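re: the backbone from monday

yeah here it is again, tokenized this time
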């Protein structure tokens, strides 16, 4: 199983880092300086247990990935106002059977995801 964390900022970075630390296959989706930092140096996870740097794959857009209908799970972690456009980007390239997990505040995100996936 591969976990695609869409929105690897404060919340998504923590989720991606912990999943990768547990030995799971993880791809981080980020943009701007965050994407550049992850691609260059890995994702730095700081916790009371200590620092952990994971070297995981990082991309900017869903279309950059080769999708596997039976293997991929997407975890949405972006701000709620960005959910609709993220789902549209996913729908353009990911199988519609792809499980979508919303790790965001509010309940509208789930409704939006359910309409497409």
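seq for it, each position gets an aa:
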């Amino acid at each position: 199983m591969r976990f695609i964390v869409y929105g690897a900022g404060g919340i998504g970075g923590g989720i991606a880092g912990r999943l990768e630390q547990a030995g799971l296959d993880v791809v981080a989706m980020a943009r701007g300086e965050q994407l550049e930092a992850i691609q260059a140096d890995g994702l730095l996870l700081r916790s009371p247990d200590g620092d952990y740097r994971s070297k995981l794959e990082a991309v900017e857009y869903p279309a950059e990935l080769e999708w596997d209908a039976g293997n991929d799970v997407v975890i949405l972690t972006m701000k709620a106002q960005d959910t609709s456009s993220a789902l549209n980007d996913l729908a353009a390239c990911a199988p519609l059977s792809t499980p979508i997990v919303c790790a965001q505040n509010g309940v509208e995100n789930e409704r939006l995801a359910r309409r497409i996936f």
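Strands lie at 2-6, 25-29, 43-47, 50-54, 57-59, 72-76, 100-102. The radius of gyration is 14 Å.
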